[in-house]
């Protein structure tokens, strides 16, 4: 998933899924994050929508994020396997003003984990977004509940966000990207190790077979 | 007409009852969606019947899409009386359809189609037009179903169509990892209403009304051909997908897209052949799995049988990663494809079927075409029956549909139950495959 290094400069390309129930604000979140714009009325996403965001992470790293905004009605419908393929991370969105979408978000997370995983078999990093936080306030009980849910369901963290008021949008995405980069480094290291092991094994087997 | 009146009214009355139970009307549903959410929570905690809960899910789903279908059209935008009425009409048409045909219910994308119909027709006409579009094999009966299986199948058909028409472009898209399902869903399920030029959309709709599903493929192919040079110069998925999902104005404008559409031809038999290919691939994939399974038979446990059963449906959904179809079955497919094509050409040469069918000329040649297809299919059927005795029933249904299909959606097919018209056969389960191998 990472591009070639040139004079110490690395460019990464990551596919990030934006999933969650119908009308929880996935497309709005993406529009805010990518274009810093907000529209009251957006068209229903049919199938999948696609956006790109380039982040200059630090002086020698550039991250190109592919954001796959997946239609909310498509849950558990066989299509997800096609859409989830090769993704490095996910933003799982729910609508704070609508409690049932939290259950939906957990189902999406479950679906995600059953369809994709990292090379080392661990789930891909996913952040839970409690969107539309401008319309309601999280009480403390709720916050501790979310904290607990994150641990139980394997989210790397959660954020209260508002695409409308631009609250925590960048922060949440940054948090996810940080984890993706970490995973990436780890997997590169693991791969190198595996390569060495494979080479050793190969040299052994070569000597036996021919 | 009186009969149809009653039907629509009956459907609407059925819808109104749960609405009344919820204490809302179609005029207030958008505004009361939040309180509906509370009701939903009450329902899920067991305070109401399952039936109402299903209704509520449907109402919510549709209500959420009312303002999100054409958010800038005056009959649907904002809170002005005209828009409130427009949204209520759209709600009534969509809920009535979901009640009229519960097997399909409501699938996202329908709101776009119904909204366009409502822009042109009266409410009742729009309802029946929607019924005709979504139920007739000539039109979109093979696009919409509750599980979105059909649209995935159509995406695979498009995938093959592109492969045969434009191998280089196809190869390029394949290399970049762009799967046809990514853009076909949006194009087909909204019937191209997301194109930025409305005059083009209306012209495309005219063509679809004339030629049905075939025109949907034709339009899709035209758009991708117009984008061909651009796509060929792109080197990553991230560049290609936005162009396909948001077709640029310079391509979708009337004076570019429509002439190109006239110059692009997609024949019904071509789509039928591609359909056959997709089905063959699905079955071929299973055979391959079967072979794999045979070779590792010693280590398979009863548990893996269950897993195997799930595979076929996944196989149908897969669009790009199918490369390793066994050589022999590929050969068979192409021989068969060639035969079907030859048959068609011979027959059409004999009876000189006009490319554009005018209603007066249609009758005689069309029956000939359908028999010729049936013969060709008979051959296929014989060979496929060797594979599975169990699928004979499915094949007969397929054939029925086939003649209906070339019958340009005759009026009587209203009486055929929907599930019988579905000519995508359920993939055989592994156990069935195994049985047939034993025979």
UniProtKB/TrEMBL annotation, chain A:
<dbReference type="GO" id="GO:0045335">
    <property type="term" value="C:phagocytic vesicle"/>
</dbReference>
<keyword id="KW-0547">Nucleotide-binding</keyword>
<dbReference type="InterPro" id="IPR005225">
    <property type="entry name" value="Small_GTP-bd"/>
</dbReference>
<dbReference type="InterPro" id="IPR027417">
    <property type="entry name" value="P-loop_NTPase"/>
</dbReference>
<dbReference type="GO" id="GO:0005802">
    <property type="term" value="C:trans-Golgi network"/>
</dbReference>
<keyword id="KW-0636">Prenylation</keyword>
<comment type="function">
    <text>The small GTPases Rab are key regulators in vesicle trafficking.</text>
</comment>
<dbReference type="GO" id="GO:0005525">
    <property type="term" value="F:GTP binding"/>
</dbReference>
<dbReference type="GO" id="GO:0005770">
    <property type="term" value="C:late endosome"/>
</dbReference>
<dbReference type="Pfam" id="PF00071">
    <property type="entry name" value="Ras"/>
</dbReference>
<dbReference type="InterPro" id="IPR030697">
    <property type="entry name" value="Rab29/Rab38/Rab32"/>
</dbReference>
<keyword id="KW-0342">GTP-binding</keyword>
<protein>
    <recommendedName>
        <fullName>Ras-related protein Rab</fullName>
    </recommendedName>
</protein>
<dbReference type="GO" id="GO:0090385">
    <property type="term" value="P:phagosome-lysosome fusion"/>
</dbReference>
<comment type="similarity">
    <text>Belongs to the small GTPase superfamily. Rab family.</text>
</comment>
<dbReference type="GO" id="GO:0008333">
    <property type="term" value="P:endosome to lysosome transport"/>
</dbReference>
<keyword id="KW-0472">Membrane</keyword>
<dbReference type="GO" id="GO:0016020">
    <property type="term" value="C:membrane"/>
</dbReference>
<dbReference type="GO" id="GO:0003924">
    <property type="term" value="F:GTPase activity"/>
</dbReference>
<dbReference type="InterPro" id="IPR001806">
    <property type="entry name" value="Small_GTPase"/>
</dbReference>
<keyword id="KW-0449">Lipoprotein</keyword>
<dbReference type="GO" id="GO:0005764">
    <property type="term" value="C:lysosome"/>
</dbReference>
TrEMBL record, chain B:
<feature type="region of interest" description="Disordered">
    <location>
        <begin position="288"/>
        <end position="328"/>
    </location>
</feature>
<dbReference type="InterPro" id="IPR050302">
    <property type="entry name" value="Rab_GAP_TBC_domain"/>
</dbReference>
<protein>
    <submittedName>
        <fullName>Si:ch211-266k8.4</fullName>
    </submittedName>
</protein>
<dbReference type="Pfam" id="PF00566">
    <property type="entry name" value="RabGAP-TBC"/>
</dbReference>
<dbReference type="InterPro" id="IPR000195">
    <property type="entry name" value="Rab-GAP-TBC_dom"/>
</dbReference>
<feature type="compositionally biased region" description="Polar residues">
    <location>
        <begin position="369"/>
        <end position="378"/>
    </location>
</feature>
<feature type="domain" description="Rab-GAP TBC">
    <location>
        <begin position="1"/>
        <end position="212"/>
    </location>
</feature>
<dbReference type="InterPro" id="IPR035969">
    <property type="entry name" value="Rab-GAP_TBC_sf"/>
</dbReference>
<feature type="region of interest" description="Disordered">
    <location>
        <begin position="369"/>
        <end position="423"/>
    </location>
</feature>
<dbReference type="GO" id="GO:0005096">
    <property type="term" value="F:GTPase activator activity"/>
</dbReference>
<feature type="compositionally biased region" description="Basic and acidic residues">
    <location>
        <begin position="288"/>
        <end position="297"/>
    </location>
</feature>
<dbReference type="GO" id="GO:0031267">
    <property type="term" value="F:small GTPase binding"/>
</dbReference>
